[in-house]
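Cross-check.
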Amino acid sequence: MSAQVLDSDAALGPEVPGVLADLSPTVVVVGDPMLDGWWCGTSDRMAREAPAPVVELGSRLFVPGGAANTAMNLVSLGARVRFVGAAGDDAAGRLLRDLLVDAGVDVGGLLLAAGVRTTTKDRVVVADQVLVRLDDGVSPVYPQEVLDSLADAAVAACEGANAVVVCDYGTGALVGPVRDALVSRAPRPPLCVVDAHDATPWAALAPDVVTPNAAEAERLVGGRLVGDDDGRAGAVGRRAETLLAATGASAVVVTLDRDGTATVARGSTGLVHRSWARPATEKQASGAGDTFVAALTLARACGLPLTTSVDLAQAAADVVVTRSGTSVCSTADLAGHLAGFAESALTHDELARAVAADRAAGRSIVFTNGCFDVLHRGHTAYLNQAKRLGDVLVVAINDDASTARLKGPGRPINPAHDRAGVLAALSCVDYVTVFDGDTAVPLLELLTPDVYAKGGDHTEESMVESSVVRAHGGEVRILDYLAAHSTSAVVRRIRGQQAGVVGTA
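Predicted model, tokenized:
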């Protein structure tokens, strides 16, 4: 079951988080721990002595933040976590340690040092609005003996681990002896991920993945990430060589908040993958980037392909941005989120209304269709290309009867509602619908999309849909075709394995 679910051609379904949790890789988090406070209260008057609201506090919640939040997310997703970091031997540091222990994190590498102040970030919240944030200990001074002990702890923790993730928030604890030890002395786990305010000092580590946010990526390239039609993600693709050189990484995943993520990798030209964030109501959320890094690290440590891992991490981040405060995404949360797409296929009338609303808001519509039976990497690459052609991607899938007519006996492998659910879970897909004909002509006449996209195994002249699209002023685009990842090849491999024959990769 696990091997099939995590196969490079497998789809991102709701069963995947459970499989990752069952595999339970050992992940070392080396980073700057913080304690986040969320103080909630009410306010109905101003202070007499100053133009400031008077807040009557009702509750105070403290949770691990910074690198400790990454550790909390990892353990909530099923990883076995060893934490390495330094905090103060003060009330905040001891509370932080206890919270990590209660969650199941191994804190053998967490040093509580006298003379060091634990970094705390306390928010005062009234009516879901943060009024003020109080930061303390944001520039701690670490004695040399603490840094040396921290380096030794990092080396010891990496022994036998499946992955190490470095969370460097720039406090100064990591870029001296700790970095040198990880580069020269630590046994290198199979996977190394760096999430740093400045990734350049970590280039010597030759990380597998670095995860800068937009502002951090702009500092790496020495300029703004601006684009025309393709926005910040396109700008990331154009600066791929600079990003990879500056970080020394095999892949760079730039997180772009509401614009999702953009991934570049060595050996590839430009943008290799894009994820799209699900629209969410603004909350006082904190730490979604930590959740993203945790889920990405877990997925890669368990062997999921980079692009699938990015989509999984995007889904985990989408879970926490709907919540207030510093929160984590658990295995159950993520599985439930992915399962929520299972019944997401729209009727044609519902789809027409949704598309009309998008068009009225000035968004362009991209349409594609197919059977999408046994979703694989070729499909996801093609759908990502299609999404980049406009603002909204509509995917129409053949129902079971028409799939059987088109593909022959024994097809589809997966029924229409399962295919629709898996497609809807992809961040690049906005709407999914099912149709019963052998062509998508009726839907194209109903929706009149701006772009009709199909894979490169088709030609514009061979498709009856082309003339319909052009008649309504639309454009037909033929996208790349990855022949090595055809559905037929995947089905043959599956059937060969079921018959006891070893399939080709």
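The radius of gyration is 25 Å. Confidence is low (pLDDT under 50) at residues 497-505. Passed to J.P. for a second look.
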